[in-house]
Write a structure and sequence with these properties.
The protein has about 475 residues and is α/β, with parallel strands linked by helices. It has helices at about 40-50, 60-65, 65-75, 90-100, 115, 120-125, 135-150, 225-230, 240-250, 265-280, 295-305, 320-325, 330-345, 360-375, 390-400, 430-445, 450-455, 460-480, and strands at about 1-5, 55-60, 80-85, 105-110, 130, 160-165, 165-170, 205-210, 215, 235, 255-260, 285-290, 310-315, 350-355, 380-385. Helix 11 runs parallel beside helix 13, helix 14 (about 360-375) packs parallel to helix 16 (about 430-445) and helix 16 packs antiparallel against helix 18 (about 460-480).
Length: about 475
């Protein structure tokens, strides 16, 4: 079967970090123009290729494909597959509808957070034929193989939803993939040759991304990851991780950005990976994400020696009562310790913060701004806490404000920069929150000492170019908004 694995562009932003399957994407100047290769879609495409299907990956945003050319290309295929989410579902459905008008016989298949949590709502959008819920790899494999055979067997595939005679048919969930080692190494050769994914925090180019685990033990009320991946945390073995790193190095990549929610959750596995990197002389620098309660100075030192240069951390707030309100499960003192250890070890840090979480006031925002400057991360991103399907926060908002609907009116145009039903859990208006985000960026980034420190730490002309470009976008957002 001829399959197009498609990454649509957006009319709202040139860059969208569209690789996390459970949603909560970021975009625009606020994140310095960062973009990521679509590794989730590449893995789906790799499995389809191994099953005997003809698959093309098309990243319309990265390749600069305009709408007319995209419609011409897509209409030649038998099926189009898209990773979608709450913040892009309406725009994605509109594109798929245009594709189907060019080729009515083509099947459109979507997976991601919105199809998982709101399958009926997703199917109600014109242009979408089939939804895939939760992990897509084996479901899409079975679905496409059944579609190729013809007949109606495809309707029995677990994990899918479709409409029949005006009725929603939502099949039982497909079981979670228990052993991630059985998944193939994503075929990164599917990417356009010399594809440029801009990322100012990367030290060495070219870089790629990688997933080595699924799930998070956190109970954060704003995050859909636990609902999407289930309660059990699943890991690729250290041996499997090292195998993929060696393949990545052989392909010519210089750096890996691990996109796991919690790369450091298994201390034993992290040590095995780091030991393997050093013993096998794998020449890759890397970035990962963690929680502050899953790190200590020893493990950070080991990671540093094995090539890690940055850790991304969900700080969320500088107020303990707000952390408790969102069930973050961390203490302010833990955050302070981890950032202190990072400075001592020599690791860069990326702090993620949310304004407008339950209980937020202008006073708590001011205190959070002071806290962030005290822990002194290398870079920081501020966003507005937004309720999305699949989260406890969304259910609480919907109970009070049913008009929130499917949440898709908080789209890529206003994502993380404008308040979205925050009045359900704060006393702050959307205007106050938008203003506070800009104020937070100005407070942190437009400081002479901070800017000078960045200039002195740059080691190459290429790094200078990327930092200047990203910095210009962030400061422009701080001064003018996105």
């Amino acid at each position: 079967m001829k399959i197009l694995a498609l990454v649509p562009s957006s009319k709202f932003a040139k860059n969208v970090a569209r690789d996390l399957i459970y949603g909560c994407w970021c975009q625009g100047k606020r994140i310095g123009g960062i973009s990521f290769p679509p590794i989730t879609l590449i893995l789906v495409g790799t499995i389809l290729k191994q099953t005997g299907h003809k698959v093309r990956l098309l990243d319309a945003a990265a390749e600069g494909i305009n709408l007319n050319l995209l419609l011409k290309i897509a209409s030649r295929y038998e099926a189009v597959i898209i990773l979608t989410s709450t913040m892009s579902i309406n725009e994605d459905a509109g594109l798929l509808n245009k594709i189907k008008k060019k080729n009515p016989n083509l099947k459109t298949i979507v997976f991601g957070s919105h199809p998982t949590f709101l399958p009926k709502d997703t199917l109600s959008k014109e242009g979408i034929d089939i939804v895939v819920r939760r992990e897509p790899e084996y479901i899409v494999r079975d679905l496409v193989s059944a579609l190729e055979k013809g007949g109606l067997d495809w309707k029995q595939v677990k994990g899918i939803g479709y409409m029949e005679d005006g009725e929603y048919i939502i099949n039982d969930f497909y079981p979670f993939i228990q052993d991630l080692d059985f998944l193939p190494v994503p075929d990164r050769r599917m990417l356009l040759e010399n594809a440029d994914y801009f990322n100012p925090v990367v030290k060495r180019l070219p870089y790629t991304t990688m997933f080595t685990s699924r799930g998070c033990p956190g109970k954060c009320t704003f995050c859909s990851s636990p609902s999407f991946y289930g309660k059990q945390i699943r890991f690729s073995s250290a041996e499997r991780v090292l195998k993929e790193l060696k393949i990545i190095q052989k392909l010519g990549y210089k750096e890996v950005f691990f996109r796991d929610e919690m790369f450091t959750l298994s201390r034993k596995r992290v040590k095995e990976i780091c030991k393997g990197i050093m013993e096998k002389n794998i020449d890759l620098t890397w970035i990962c994400s963690s929680r502050v309660d899953a790190l200590d100075k020893e493990i950070m030192s080991i990671m540093k020696r094995a090539g890690c240069h940055m850790i991304r951390l969900g700080v969320e707030s500088g107020m303990q009562e707000i952390l408790d309100n969102i069930k973050k499960g961390i203490k302010i003192s833990q955050t302070t310790d981890v950032f202190k250890w990072a400075h001592e070890v020599g690791l860069d840090t990326h702090a993620h913060l949310m304004l407008g979480a339950p209980g937020e006031t202008l006073r708590t925002i001011d205190k959070t701004m002071r806290f962030v400057k005290n822990i002194d991360p290398t870079i920081v991103t501020f966003g507005i806490c937004s309720p999305y399907p699949g989260t406890l926060l969304f259910e609480q908002v919907k109970e009070k404000y049913p008009e929130v609907g499917d949440g898709s009116s908080c789209d890529l145009q206003n994502l993380h920069t404008q308040g979205f039903y925050n009045q359900a859990f704060t006393g702050l208006s959307s205007e106050m929150l938008s203003s506070s985000v800009g104020r937070a960026y100005r407070s942190f980034y437009i400081r002479p000492a901070y800017l000078l420190r960045w200039l002195f730490r740059i080691n190459s002309m290429d790094e200078l170019r990327r930092v200047m470009l990203a910095g210009t976008q962030v400061i422009n957002f701080a001064l003018k908004g996105d």
